[in-house]
# Entry
Amino acid sequence: MYIKDLRLHEGQPVTLKGWVANKRESKGLVFIIMRDGSGLCQCVTDATQVSEQIFENARSLTLESSVELSGTVVKDEKQVGGYEVRVTALTPLQVAKDYPIAKKEHGVDFLMDHRHLWLRSQRQWAIMRIRNRIIYSIHQFFQQEGFVQMDAPIFTGNACEGTTNLFETEYYGEPAYLSQSGQLYGEAMAMAMGKIYTFGPTFRAEKSKTRRHLSEFWMIEPEMAFFDIFDNMDLIERFLRKVVTDVLSECPTELEAIGRDTAVLQQIVKPFPRLTYDEAVKIIKGEQDVNGKNAITSLEEELKTVDARIVEVHKEIAEREERMKTPGMKKGEIGFNQAKIDKLKQELVDLEEQQRNIPQWLNSARSFVYGNDFGGSDETVLTRLFDVPIMVYNWPHQVKAFYLKRDPNDNRFARGVDTLAPEGYGEIVGGGERETNEQLLVEKIKEHELPLEAFEWYLDLRRYGSVPHAGFGLGLERLVTWVCKLPHVRESIPFPRMYGRLLP
Ligand code: 4AD
Ligand code: MG
# Structure
C-alpha cells in the first residue's frame, strides 16, 4: 500500500511502510508525517485508542526512523495529501539517531556532503521525480517518431568537442578518453538506421565552477540522415515542447512542491524565436530591442530598482528589530515580527546576489566582441528578455566544433544552432548540420589540431554514401535545472560530479 493510493481507501484499514519526515507530540497524541517515496501523509497515534506499547512505539520514533504502521484512512483536506491515517498498530523498523539534516537552514556544502540523505527531502524528491518524467518523455518522443536508440561507447580514442576538456584514462596501456559526446558514433549509426538517438553519460574536464557545469552529465543526441539545419530546428522545438508539456500535465504536485511558477513553462506552446548569431549579438549589445525591451537599459533600470529595494529592506528590518524591543510585547507578535525579519533577510540575500551579478552582466554585454562565442553572462543577458526558448544559428565557424557544415551562402559561418532556455538560463541544446565535404572536414580536423588517423573511420562516412544530415545534443541536467528553476545544476542530478567533488 502506497500513500499516493490512500484516496482509494477512505474509511478502510491500511498498512504503510516508510520513514518519519516529521514528528510532534501533544497531550496524548503523536503526530507523524510519514513519507514512503510516493507521497506524504499525517498519521496520528491517540493514547486513548491504542495499547500503551503502541503509544510508546510511536513516541520512540525520531526524524527519519523507518516504521511500519496500520490504521484507518480519514479524509482531511487540511492535511498534506488530503488524507490522514488514525493509527491502530505501529512498529519501528529502525530508530534513527541524530539525523544530520535538521529543519533549520543548512549551507549548500553541508547538504552536498550529505547528498545521500538530502535526496529524501521534499524538494529533492520533487526534482528527481521531474527528472524521471523528463527522461520518460524523451524516450517516448523519439520512439514515437521512429528513432532507434543506440548506446555510444564511453571509452573513446578521439576528441569530439575540443581537446581542452578531455578526461584522459588508460586503455590497455594506450591513452583513451571518456566520451564528451556520442555524436560521431551517432552519425555512423544514422547512416545505418536513418534516425537514431543516444542517451548516455558524457564527460567534460573543464575546471569550471559555474552554476551550469558538471564534469559528468547525461546527454540526449539525436542524429538524422537527410535533415538540414532548419529540419533540425523544427525537431528541437517539437521535442522540447512535448517534454515540457508532459511535465506540466504529469507533475503538478512536484512543481508545486518546489514552488515553480508555471506561467513561463506554459508559454512553451508559442513558436521559439530563431535568431542568427548577428541578430543575437545586436540584442546583447543593446543595438536592437526585443519584445519591447532593450538588454542594456532594462538591466540598468533593474539595478536601480534592486539598489532601492535593498535600502528599503534594511530599513524595514531595523524598524522591526526596534519594535521587538518594546517591553511586554506578546509572544505571538514577537513570532510574527521575527518571521517577517527572516523573510526580509532571505530577500536581501537574493537582492545582494543580483546587485553583484547585474553589473557583471552589463559589463560583459557592453564589451562583447563580435565573432566571439557567448559566455554564460551573454546567454543570461539575452535569455532574460524571453519567456520561451530561443534558437541562435549561423555561428562564426571559428568558435564552433570541427564537424559543423560551413554555410553555403556565407563561408564565414557554420550551420550550428544553440537553443537557449529563457529566464536567464542559457544554452540547453547544441547542435547543427554536419559538414559533408571531406576536404573541408580534413582542414578543420587539422585546424583543431586533432589527430587525423583517429578520424579516418569518421571520414569514411563522407566517402561511402555521404548525405546531408544534422543532429543535436540536449544536456539533461540543464533542462531539469530550467524546468525546475534551480539556482544551480548540482540539484538536477542524484549524485553530481563537478570540479572539486567526487563524494558521496
Ligand atoms: O554544446 P555541446 O558541447 O554539443 C555537443 O556535445 C554536440 N556533440 C551535440 C550534438 O550535436 N550531438 O553539448 C550539448 C549540450 C549543451 O547544450 C548543454 O546542454 C550540455 O550538453 N552540456 C553540459 N551540461 C552540463 N555540464 C556541462 N559541462 C555541459 N557541457 C555541455
Ligand atoms: Mg555548446
Notes: Residues 118-272+389-492 form a domain with the BirA Bifunctional Protein; domain 2 fold (CATH 3.30.930.10). The chain has three domains: 3-94, 118-272+389-492, 296-366. The longest helix spans residues 331-366.
